[in-house]
């Protein structure tokens, strides 16, 4: 549940509305948002994310250390919601055959520039995670570090699409904001330690312009919602990682901070098998 001031100004956001938002409105809002925010996002977070690094979350958990995906060399991998594709390039460096997909042309522009700068040519596709433009059984594994999943209206459909493009036995590993964070204000300081909302309120977080048109949309699901959607898509959940805030890590990222991280989880990483 984060956003930046400049993108809000560009899109004319005037406030927050707790309203239901369908797939079409979610797609339109998030294309506009991430295209408008791409420059500021990389100015603020680019150094932390790197151009050839696989960072799972603001808690600074790296795939290099966590090994959540297992051996990737020679495997066909899809990064869903790849942004500028730093994770995809890290995987390519380790011998994976990787494709990255993202909704935002602005974010993919950074991805293509980083491909050129590093000489690591990862194919990048602009597309919607709810309707993946790949043949069934194209990939051995799929992954996503805060990409796509929080922003789609139809999470069950998205999981079904991921299952479709995976081969039998393939894994789907994705990181999202920990669902319990939604009961607290989006604040890294002391005010962010006080419960103000209901965990069971699935109404998305929506920023709107003066005409009430959504300019940013992020959807909330409970842990149970995720588990049921995964099961319906044919996945077996075999691990749920809740990264602890590491000692000495002082960098804040939106609502993530040492103060909050020491008390309750900010990230949930689901590890599933088709």
Describe the structure.
The chain has 274 residues and is of the alpha/beta class. α2 runs parallel beside α5. α6 (155-165) links the parallel β5 (139-145) and β6 (166-177). It is built from 8 helices and 10 strands. The longest helix has 27 residues, at 23-49.
Give the SSE map.
Blueprint lengths: L4 H7 L1 E5 L5 H27 L13 H4 L9 E5 L5 H8 L3 E6 L2 H14 L5 E3 L12 E7 L9 H11 E12 L27 E5 L4 E5 L4 H10 L3 E6 L16 H4 L5 E7 L1
> How many beta-strand segments?
10
Task: Round the mean pLDDT to the nearest integer and report it.
Answer: 93
Adjacency order of strands in the biggest sheet: 4-3-2-5-6-10-9
What proportion of the residues is helical, as a percent range?
25-40%
Rg estimate, integer Å: 18 Å
Distance between the termini: 29 Å
Low-confidence parts lasting 5 or more residues at pLDDT below 50? none
Short description:
This protein is α/β, with parallel strands linked by helices and 274 residues long. The chain has helices at 5-11, 23-49, 63-66, 86-93, 105-118, 155-165, 223-232, 258-261, and strands at residues 13-17, 76-80, 97-102, 124-126, 139-145, 166-177, 205-209, 214-218, 236-241, 267-273.
Task: Give a quick set of tags describing it.
single chain, three-stranded antiparallel beta sheet, 8 helices
